[in-house]
């Protein structure tokens, strides 16, 4: 299936200090990511690429369902689209640091991307995310040691169970990444102000040429 056209916005030319690929969730769109996240973000020196899922979802199953052949195929197509997006942005802005970010199903896809060691970003921001599949499934664990990763979740989120988010934290931490994981009790299916502040801080660190320090207050 041909990739649907995404969006690119933000800084251009010599003003670009950092890059960000922001992946939307199930039933969402790049336009919603602009409204729900980017309009709340102060990042004037960042170029954003927002890929679009052709079917409105990156894969049909729930993230916590056991992996089937169909889900693996759909996940493979979505990961290839994400790889192409990252490669295109890096081609246009070589040597500029890149944050891979996602919300909900987009966060899950982004986590699977780094766990496969594919076109690695300089940092990962997974807002309300988990691994795709169950711990019993055959899943790669090739996230590079030291990769800065911010992972968030909530006990009030109806789509990503808290237990699945905590299992992802154990998986990513066990691969030796530089992980910070935050749980926001009672938060619904959204990105709260603290998560937006963390994204802004990570982008500011990358734009300044340093590894993200996760300095935003919880």
What does this protein structure show overall?
This protein is an alpha/beta fold and 218 residues long. The protein has a single domain, classed as 3-Layer(aba) Sandwich (Rossmann fold). Helix content is 32%, strand content 20%. The chain has a 7-stranded mixed sheet with strand order 1-3-2-4-5-6-7, with helices on both faces. Helix 4 links the parallel strand 6 (148-153) and strand 7 (178-183). The longest helix has 24 residues, at 69-92. The model has no long low-confidence stretch (mean pLDDT 95).
Share of helix among residues?
25-40%
- Average residue-wise pLDDT: 95
Class, according to the CATH hierarchy? Alpha Beta
Number of domains: 1
Radius of gyration, Cα only, in angstroms? 16 Å
Give the overall silhouette.
Answer: globular
Distance between the termini: 41 Å
Strand order of the largest sheet: 1-3-2-4-5-6-7
Question: Total helix count?
Answer: 5
Main beta sheet strand tally, sense and closure: 7 strands, mixed
